[in-house]
Request: fold
Amino acid sequence: MTVRLFISIILGTLISAVTLYMAFRNVPFPELVDYLLSINFIWLFPSVALVIVGFALRALRWQYIMGASHRIDFWQAFHPVMIGFAINCVLPGRVGELARPIVLRRRVDVPLTTGLATIVVERVFDLLMLVVLFMWVWSGVKIDPTIEIRFGEYVLNRDTLAVIFKGMVGASVLLVAALILLGLQRSRSVLNDMILRLPRLLFFIGTGGKEWISDRICHPAVSIIENVGAGIMLIKRPRRMSVCLVLSACIWSLAAVSYYLFSLGCPDIRLTLAEITAMMVIICFVIALPSVPGFWGLWEAGGVFALMLFGVAEKDAAGFTLANHAVQMFPVIVVGLISAWINGINIMQVSYQK
Reply:
């Protein structure tokens, strides 16, 4: 284990502990423990099963996205997905997103930039689903403007959610525009031509300097753009896009049902599937804010805020949110470690591989 990685793990653990304290500082610890002990954990098993199925569908979706340019089988997609998400749960900086294409490149001959491009496409599908779901929440749930949760420098309330929503819509528009620009051969060719012409514009540089810029900067940049274009060829395959949209809807539906099933074993959480889905969407919007590994603390603050909108007491909301967070995270870490072991991947090394 490198010193850098060791420091990241220690700092991530300490920051997570501090943020959890901030989220629960107003909740009496003995009452929180009593609530956690009162949960009927028999409902944990179907909830965890749906978590794993949801990630299997994520792997299948990635396989379809990647399949527009490089054929990979299900397990070649599943193991990198689980390893990447497991790393995201324990290390800062979302380095798991970078680790996933590195793991894939070790198993299959797929350029790193192509793998990264397919992950961006994945995120676009997730963003679009979240935007649609939040529009449903915003129109169907009365978000009391007087309810707020203070969490460090953040104040979680109706206005905060509105700001995050606008940011996600803006990010979605920019990402879709970038995918179209780089995914279409004609626009990509224009961009490449502009890059290759760049040395000619530097009239104040000698011939040797122009050749160096062309060989070391322009041609590698064009190669990267072409690899990225290969990763987002999905936009030219309507049938594959349709399949990925359906898979995205299934992924988020299963996540909501997983939350709901676990809530059935939690005292004083008597919410409908629609209300639990609204809570999940609000949590997903809140954890879009800068956070620690695994979103510890910020996830809980978002969950407590969402449940208070439906009249759940803060103590009960805190206990359910903390337990459900663990249910959603720990299976991913365990399966990710198993995937790393099966593939002979050293997570500690791949996490910060250059």
